[in-house]
């Protein structure tokens, strides 16, 4: 029996430390995967996170909207002399299943996970659970949207949102990336964040991409990533109903069937 993705070459643009699970899942279904990480992450030196950790037990919730925010937050927590035991009785909210899995791997569970995996629905869930005057710690990326902060402020919920990591465009494989696009060696390009979209278009010859757009499929996770791609002039794309890598791969297979 022919595998669904057999004969297709897919570009995985995720950061190096996150690329493997998606690649394995695509290869499991017969895809030929090229990994070109377009972003990398590094720990930030934002002094606000250190101040927040000093008063960690004054927060009613700790909120995570990415797997990276969890790992960097816990790294900084340890650097400040605190162990995970210090926060084991605190309440957590996460944006989706991937973030929940990362939290579970660290020994914690989430008290809030929204029905739709985005910041807007997470904010709604938190507003239902919390009252004015209560406090939220939201460790985030330097590029995170302000939706959560803005929505909670509207209803009087205190929120501290220090950056725990920075997202950096990775240009190590720029020449390889352009060669693959120019020679039409890629059939499907996968973007899992707005940052991967912005990094991609900052490195490629956009005219070449647009001239070959009828030969390319674009697949994205999430409404924010799809908006970033639309801003670059790409209207046709594959978007799963559920914002997970598993759902994305199944949406790709359904699209090309």
Please characterize this protein's 3D structure.
The chain is elongated and about 55 Å long. The protein has helices at residues 16-28, 47-54, 67-79, 97-105, 119-129, 147-154, 174-182, 194-203, 206-211, 223-231, 245-256; strands at 9-12, 32-35, 39-43, 61-64, 92-94, 135-137, 140-141, 158-160, 163-169, 188-191, 217-220. Helices cover 42% and strands 17% of the residues. The chain folds into two domains: 9-38 and 170-256, Rossmann fold (3-Layer(aba) Sandwich), CATH 3.40.50; 42-166, 3-Layer(aba) Sandwich (Rossmann fold), CATH 3.40.50.10090. Helix 1 links the parallel strand 1 and strand 2. The protein has 257 residues and is α/β, with parallel strands linked by helices. The strands form three sheets. Strands 2-1-10-11 form a four-stranded parallel sheet. Strands 5-4-6-8 form a four-stranded parallel sheet. The protein is built from eleven helices and eleven strands. The longest helix has 13 residues, at 16-28. The model has no long low-confidence stretch (mean pLDDT 96). Pathway: Porphyrin-containing compound metabolism; protoporphyrin-IX biosynthesis; coproporphyrinogen-III from 5-aminolevulinate: step 3/4.
CATH class of the largest domain: Alpha Beta
- Measured on Cα atoms, how large is the radius of gyration? 19 Å
Distance between the termini: 14 Å
Number of helices: 11
